[in-house]
Write a structure and sequence with these properties.
alpha/beta, Fumarate Reductase Iron-sulfur Protein, Chain B, domain 2, FAD/NAD(P)-binding domain, 3 domains, five-stranded parallel beta sheet, 16 strands, about 35% helix, binds flavin-adenine dinucleotide, binds iron/sulfur cluster
Length: about 475
C-alpha cells in the first residue's frame, strides 16, 4: 500500500474530456489520459484491502492492488508485467470496459472508488511508449495446429495464449481486417482503430497467422478445418440482431444499428461500404434500444450532423443510486450517462413502439406509448398506460435492441452443432462443443457480452485446449 491515508487525502480524479462542441467535429478519441503525477495520487487512494473485492469484480481477475501500488511508486515496467499476467489487451479494456471492478472497490461503500480503469490506461500506454510491449520470438513449437474462427477479443485472446503455449495458430476472419467488434462495431471515438492494429501487428510478429476475407462455412467448410487442425475454436460473436416486428418495419430508412456503425468504421478505414449508404446528416434519427450499441449510434449520428437524435428504451429509467436489493460489491444497476448521451439526445424510458408510418415508402413517424411493468400471476408483464400514445418524427430509425446469439448459418448447421436454450453454442465446462476437438468461446458461446468477458472466454478456452492438445 503506497500511502496509508491516501484515500482520505486525495479525491478521485476522472479523465478530462474535450468539450462537446469540439469533439463533435472529429472522430478521434477525446479523453485525455492521467498525467504520471495524477496517476500516482490516484494509485495512492488504494487501501490494499486484505480481500481485494475489485479483483473479484474484474472478470479476468486483474491483480489491481499490486499495480495501484506500483504506479504509486512509479515503477511502470513492473506494473505492466503484473497487468499483462491477467490481461492480454489492457489497451482495449482501459478504453471501453464499463469497469465492474470499480463497483466492487471497497472504497465505493463510502466514497468514489479508486480510478482503476484510468490507472490501467496509464500503465499500458506508458508500456507502449517505453517499448515494454514488444513481440517475442517463440521457439520450440509443439507442432500442434489450432484454427480460430473469428478475430474479435475472444479469438485474439485465445490465439495469443495458445501461441505463447507454443502451438501453431491460424485465425480465420470473414472481414478484410481482424478485430471483430473492436474494429467494425465500437466507434473510432471510443477506440481508435490504430490501437487495435498496433496489437494485431505484435500478434503477427509473434507468429500468429491471420487469414482475412475467409468465411468458414462458406469459403472453407468447418469439417475441412477439423481434418486439417488438431483443434478448432469457434469465436464468431453474437451477430444475430433482434428485430422489431411491428407494422411499418418494411419502410425505407429502418436499419440494424450494426449496419450503420459498421459503415462508419469502414468509411474511416477507407474501406468500401457494403450496400446503400446509411447516413444521419440533416435527419431526425431515432435509436431504439438504450444500451451500449444505442449509445454508439447516438455519438455517430451526432458526428454525422443529425438534425435531432432521440433514444427510446422499453425499460424504465434506473435510479441514480443503488437500490438496497442491489448492494455493493455487485455491479450497480444505476442510470449512467455515456459520453455520447452527453453530446445531445432526447431520451425516453418506458416506451413501446406500436407501429411505424411513412410517406412514399420512407419512414416518417414512430407511434409510441408509455408502458409499465406489472406483476400478474407471479409474472412480470408489460402493460400499456392508457391515453399516453404519442409520436416522434423519424427519417432514420436504428434498431439497437440486442443480439440473439450467433447467426444460424452453415458454420453451425453443417455438423449439427448443439446450441443452448438461448441459441448460443453449447459447450461443456472445458469449452468443448458436442464435437470432439471443436471448442467455442466469447459471445458465440456466452451470448452478447463485454470485451473483458470475451478476453476471459478466450483465455479459458485456450487453457482447456492446451490441456486437450497435450493429451493427444
Ligand atoms: C456496437 C457495439 C458496441 C459495444 N461496445 C462495447 C463497449 O464499449 N465495451 C465493452 O466491453 N463491450 C462492448 N460491446 C460488446 C463487445 O464488443 C463484445 O462483447 C465482444 O466484441 C465479443 O467478442 P467476440 O470475440 O466474442 O466476438 P466479436 O467481437 O463479435 O468478433 C467475432 C468475429 O468473428 C468473425 N466471424 C463470424 N463468423 C465467422 C465465420 N464463419 N468465419 C470467419 N469469421 C467469422 C466476425 O466477422 C467477427 O470479426 C459492444 C458491442 C457492440 C455491438
Ligand atoms: S479489465 Fe475492466 S474490470 Fe478489469 S480492471 Fe480493467 S477496467 Fe476493471
Amino acid at each position: 500500500m503506497g500511502e496509508i491515508k491516501g484515500f482520505v487525502k486525495y479525491k478521485r480524479k476522472n479523465l478530462a474530456k474535450e468539450n462537446v462542441n469540439k469533439r463533435l467535429t472529429h472522430w478521434k478519441e477525446f479523453i485525455k489520459p492521467l498525467s504520471k503525477k495524477d496517476a500516482k495520487t490516484q494509485g495512492a487512494r488504494c487501501m490494499d484491502c486484505g480481500t481485494p473485492f475489485c479483483q473479484y469484480g474484474c472478470p479476468i481477475n486483474n491483480i489491481i492492488p499490486d499495480w495501484n501500488d506500483l504506479v504509486y511508486k512509479e515503477d511502470y515496467e513492473e506494473a505492466y508485467k503484473r497487468l499483462s499476467l491477467t490481461n492480454n489487451f489492457p489497451e482495449f479494456t482501459s478504453r471501453v470496459c464499463p469497469a465492474p471492478c470499480e463497483n466492487s472497490c471497497v472504497l465505493e461503500i463510502t466514497n468514489p472508488p479508486v480510478a482503476i480503469k484510468n490507472i490501467e490506461r496509464a500503465i499500458i500506454e506508458n508500456a507502449f511508449k517505453n517499448n515494454y510491449v514488444r513481440s517475442k520470438t517463440i521457439t520450440n513449437r509443439t507442432g500442434k495446429k489450432v484454427a480460430i474462427v473469428g478475430s474479435g477479443p475472444a479469438g485474439l485472446a485465445c490465439a495469443d495464449e495458445l501461441n505463447k503455449a507454443k502451438h501453431e495458430v491460424t485465425v480465420y476472419e470473414k472481414n478484410e481486417l481482424p478485430g471483430g467488434l473492436l474494429t467494425f462495431g465500437i466507434p473510432e471515438f471510443k477506440l481508435e482503430k490504430r490501437i487495435v492494429q498496433r496489437r494485431i501487428k505484435i500478434l503477427q510478429e509473434e507468429g500468429i497467422i491471420f487469414k482475412t476475407n475467409v468465411e468458414i462455412g462458406k469459403d472453407i467448410l468447418l469439417s475441412k478445418l477439423l481434418d486439417e487442425f488438431d483443434a478448432v475454436v469457434l469465436s464468431g460473436g453474437a451477430e444475430n440482431p433482434r428485430d422489431l416486428n411491428v407494422e411499418g418495419r418494411e419502410l425505407e430508412g429502418i436499419h440494424f444499428a450494426m449496419d450503420f456503425l459498421t459503415q462508419q468504421n469502414r468509411r474511416l478505414l477507407g474501406l468500401e461500404i457494403n450496400g446503400k449508404p446509411i447516413y444521419a446528416k440533416n435527419k431526425n434519427v431515432v435509436v431504439i434500444g438504450g444500451g451500449d450499441t444505442g449509445s454508439d449510434c447516438i455519438g455517430t449520428a451526432n458526428r454525422q450532423g443529425a438534425k435531432s437524435v432521440t433514444s427510446l428504451e422499453l425499460m424504465p429509467q434506473l435510479p441514480k443510486q443503488r437500490r438496497k436489493e442491489n448492494p455493493w460489491p455487485q455491479w450497480a444497476f444505476i442510470d449512467r450517462t455515456s459520453t455520447s448521451h452527453e453530446e445531445g439526445c432526447k431520451k425516453y424510458f418506458g416506451v413501446l413502439t406500436k407501429k411505424i408510418t411513412g410517406k412514399n415508402g420512407n419512414v416518417k413517424k414512430l407511434h409510441l406509448v408509455n408502458v409499465e411493468f406489472v406483476k400478474e400471476n407471479g409474472n412480470r408483464i408489460i402493460k400499456e398506460v392508457k391515453g399516453t400514445d404519442f409520436t416522434v418524427d423519424a427519417d432514420l430509425v436504428l434498431l439497437a435492441m440486442g443480439f440473439l446469439g450467433p447467426r444460424k448459418n452453415k458454420l453451425l448447421t453443417e455438423l449439427n452443432i448443439v446450441l443452448d436454450e438461448r441459441g448460443n453454442i453449447k459447450t461443456d465446462r472445458n469449452n468443448m462443443t458436442n464435437i470432439s476437438g471443436l471448442f467455442a468461446a466469447g459471445d458465440m458461446r456466452r451470448g452478447q457480452s463485454l470485451v473483458v468477458w470475451a478476453i476471459h472466454e478466450g483465455r479459458k478456452a485456450a487453457a482447456n485446449i492446451n490441456k486437450y492438445l497435450l493429451k493427444q
